[in-house]
Amino acid sequence: MPDLLRATAVHPALYEKSSLAFWDDDHISAQMLANHLDPTHDGASRKHAFMDKSAAWIATALPPDEFPNLLDVGCGPGLYAERLARAGFNVTGVDLSRRSIAHARASAQSAGLEIRYERQDYLELELNGRFDAAVMIYCDYGALSTQDRRTAMAHLHRHLKPGGRLLLDAFSLAHYRSAQENRTWEACPDGGFWSPHEHCVLKECRTYPPNVIMERYAVITEDGTATHNLWNTCFTAVALAEEACRAGFRVCGIFGDVAGSPASDKGDTVALLLERSVLHPRQAPTAEPY
User: Fold this and answer.
1) Which of 7, 34, 94, 243 has the fewest Cβ atoms nearer than 10 Å?
2) DSSP 3-state assignment of 163?
3) For the segment 40-97, what is each residue's pLDDT rounded down to a tens digit?
4) Do 142 and 256 sit in the same domain of this protein?
5) What is the DSSP letter of 50?
């Protein structure tokens, strides 16, 4: 009963963690992989048509002959990694999900692609060598707490060569402003995404001013209640650039998404192309206040 009361009545503290690592839950990870591989679904990865466009633009913004060794952080089942390998990069993919990494390795082998995959937490990233470029996309950056973002950026900085480039995206303030706070219940008598057994799901969307959105899924089964807290910190281009520059990067370009669309104050995302630098934060280049 206390778990149920908490799930229905108590708002979690900012960046409070989920009650279990759902990305390695046997059932949930299988559902996530299926969503990744659905070409029309954008709840786990972006739609495949967008990824095709994005990978082509990345190969233009980061020519493989200049930036041959690329690190894909949060690679999932390798959808971007394979596209980037075909574009001419030597790709290393990192992800924490056992199921995603296993699928990525099998898929690359089947396709005859030489992609290195490592199952690691990018908050504890430890790889041999340094890279010419890295990507951390599908707004993974904003899913982290403030301290975890600092940690992730420090690891990325350390794993890039001097002059190495990083492509990073996050949800925008327009996305934050469009969020609608709500709570909905769903009964799943035959199982569903969160459990193969009968369960109910309380889904809650809540905003934490000035720029954080939380989606919480409280999954109630006969065995108890599990809570899954999904956080999204939203940014202006200026705020995202300031965090990057404090971590030792300088801004090379500002875009609306990771396919190179123009930046806009109405866009759902903001993307930065960064270069590993030793600039002091006060030397950070200015950015349009989207």
Assistant:
1) 34
2) strand
3) 655 546 788 999 999 999 999 999 999 999 999 999 999 999 999 999 999 999 999 9
4) yes
5) H
191 torsion bin: left (phi>0), alpha (psi -120 to 50), beta (else): left
Tokens of 50: 């967008």
Considering the domain boundaries, does residue 167 fall inside one? yes
Residue ranges of E strands in 172-268: 182-188, 199-208, 212-221, 224-233, 249-255
- Classify residue 19: in a domain, yes or no: no
234 and 211 Cβ atoms separated by less than 8 Å = yes
30 domain residue, yes or no:
no
- What's the confidence (pLDDT) of residue 46? 74
Q: Are 223 and 98 contained in the same domain?
A: no
* Inter-residue contact 57 to 271 (CB < 8 Å): no
Q: Residue 168's closest CA among 282, 271, 40?
A: 271
pTM attached to this predicted model: 0.90
Q: Do 137 and 214 sit in the same domain of this protein?
A: no
Residue 68 lies in domain: 47-172+235-283
> Based on the domain organization, do 55 and 147 belong to the same domain?
yes
